[in-house]
Amino acid sequence: MLIKEITDYLESVAPLSLQEDYDNAGLITGDASWECTGILCTLDITEEVIQESVDKKCNCIVAHHPIIFRGLKKINGYNLVERSVIAAIKNDIAIYASHTNLDNIIKGVNGRIADRIGIENRLILNGEMDIGAGIIGDITPVSEKQFLEHLQYQFCLKLVKHTAFTNKPIERVAVCGGAGSFLISKALAAGADAYVTSDIKYHEFFGAEGRTLLCDIGHYESEQFTVGLFRDILLQKFPTFAVLKSEVATNPVHYFTGK
User: Fold this and answer.
1) Which of 157, 159, 177, 244 is 20 to 30 A (C-alpha) from 9?
2) Which residues span the domain enclosing 57?
């Protein structure tokens, strides 16, 4: 099977035309005409992930975050991005990224988050029909404390950053994987009792205005199940092919809890 068959299928699920203008989804290294020996699914590309693909004889890596996001003027191994690209090229590894295009479909990254939370009656938060950013829907009503405990359990969180309790049940929930502060106003307008996302800046927390429980669960934590999503998508089309989940922990953020 050619790598082109894999990328064509992924683009039929999450078309590149759905990516944001700033993004760099698609085939980043390698040749689509290569014969594929195996697929390794990951959230991030690091040198360790490249080595893992070599060790597991997978010459195609499907990642969520594009390793080349902004233009490179030099590739001399000065930083993580350059070293990873060099390692991929040296080892004939094709890297394919499905990023905001996968965010912008209802059964993509946000759909997997909604699955974990148990959201029903799902709608796109900012878009039309099944295309756009974020998801909003309903859950069985719970207290704010119960909701935070549910997030902590489902996403294996050491902590949850959140705004003050509004002292009302959580029933309508909005989500956006990764950096989603740009949708706070949309979540408020849609009547969300809680909005789950990440990378919220200090002053952006004030944007909740006491009307919603704003929850920042961490960038990696919000997107961690994307690796399994990739594998599930690929196995639907290629059920007998070697599609593996990376075992490398790529989260660069660590938490000191004093324990």
Assistant:
1) 177
2) 3-102
